[in-house]
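Quick question about two entries, pasted in order.
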Amino acid sequence: MAKNYENLEVWQKAITFALLVYRLTKSFPREELYGLTSQLRRSAISISSNIAEGAGRNSRKEFLRFVLIGLGSLNEAESQIHVSYQLGYVKENEFQEMMQRVGELGNLLGGLRNYLNKPHSTSHFPQSKV
């Protein structure tokens, strides 16, 4: 049985983002395994996890809280990608692609946040584009 959050474009894009982060960090130096690699992977996976957890809650207010946590995790991942780039672990083209993905995901999360802040809707799931 599919969960409602699986139909949300923002959750789907967050999963894709996490997969890209995992692929990107495969080439990081071994000494970063418990440092930057682990931090970046955890922040990336946290985005979709918080959307899913919030969607499973019984109120829009709680869903909103988890969306805000997801936004924080996205900001954390963005910062870590910047550090990775500055350290030379990420190539210019990879950095640009990841920043584009961060922007897109940020826009989608912001849209979901705005939707959940609207008091007039009874459902806490927006209509999916899928």
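Here is the second entry:
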Amino acid sequence: MRVRVLLATACLCGAAAAPVWAAACESLASLQLPDTKVTLAASVAAGAFTPPPGAPPVPGPPAPYADLPAFCRVAATLTPTPDSDIRIEVWLPAAGWNGKFEAVGNGGWLGAIVLPALGGALRRGYAAAGTDTGHTSGVMDASWALGHPEKVTDFAWRAVHLMTVRAKAIVEAFYGAPPKRSYWNGCSSGGKQGLKEAQRFPEDFDGIVAGAPAYDWTHLTASSVWTGLVVLKDKASYIPREKYALLHKAALDACDALDGVKDGLIDDPRQCHFDPAALRCADADTPTCLTPAQVASAKRVYGPATFSDGKQFFPGLEPGSELGWGFLLGGPEPTPIGSTHYRYLVHADPAWDPRTMDFDKDVPLADKLDSGTIAATSTDLGAFKARGGKLISYHGWTDALIVPRSTIDYYDKVVKASGGLEKTQDFFRLFMAPGMDHCAGGEGPNSFDAMAALEDWVERGKAPDVLVASHRIGGAVDRTRPLCAYPKHAKWKGSGSTDEAASFACVD
């Protein structure tokens, strides 16, 4: 059955039209799609949405829903294999549809639909879709993967791809026309999901925003264990949380002014050669110094994660990221977001202890077992480019969850595989944000509209050279700064306020 609501006749633009679109929405309950059961098709009045109880919490602050416009809410379960149980939701604006589709990403191991992200897309007039990736869990837990290889494949790529295909069919059934453009918007695991789509299903999206992508999955999860074990191997090596601010201030004192502007930010931490030994205690341990063991720990945290022969398998955290170190270094065990991968997908042993990890053996084994299933490390984006696809990636320099240099490493590899920077920037641009934490927040300007820039690029051919980012205190903007397409960076012109983007230019 195909349900069609022709906007020209149904209008969908006022109280009188509500019964028309509401009835059409509820008719979607009988829509027939392969391996798909529609479990809900309900009209939601403006401001009336409330999230269903019992779902795992999603990252980020509580989301407001009172300002959501009226929409048709469709939920469905996809079962491409006997062990698949992929939940999706599609939200369809009752009025003012912009003719486009936006799919939203997940974070960590999250097995839940990110409803706040759906709301954000809906407010902008998009038909939007999200998925729980085929399981129910929080961001830290991969126990669902034990003995369920098909669910791992669903999480890795199948849920997102099938959600996209089914959601587009639902959009066409409701509006009587397919979306004119399709976009992906995700960060962290959502960034990895976006890269996986560009690599594996280049026809799914016209444009992709892939923020702070967790693309090198097996090495990223290993590095989180490695970093935790650096400071948790014994009591002496542990850096108390109270000393993160001490380290942070010392790093800023050493490197803030390297870019010619003293603004509380390290513009490019790769140029910073801060030595935590400057904080070494002269005598007894105090809150204002680091013991020799703590100095050694800090040096290793800033350094790369390595095998026993010294070969790097993942970059280290950057100077300036110290205020976020609690996630990986806070203890008492290495953060489970990484160790859960090795416990359930590599060793398949719920009792496995991350303190026993043998990086020389376990990381290559994880690579072999995954073989690109979850990881999105392919640099072959030729098919995506050939069909006109555009890709924007961004990463905060003070991200303490996914090391920012890893995204630069991937971009540099794509540049090499694509025949140089100019050819790569025809379809793929990267923006690095000084002082920005994981996906959002931080002391630097961290709020910017990557989706608007992507739309300009896809729909009007205007490639983004700059994303203007803002920083807010109490809701009020106190600083703006241009984020320049890598490898360029923002340099102060020598006059004008250093809190205003107009005072900066992008330079090599």
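Reply: The chain is about 30% helix and 20% strand. The CA atoms of residues 222 and 379 lie 21 Å apart. Hope that helps.
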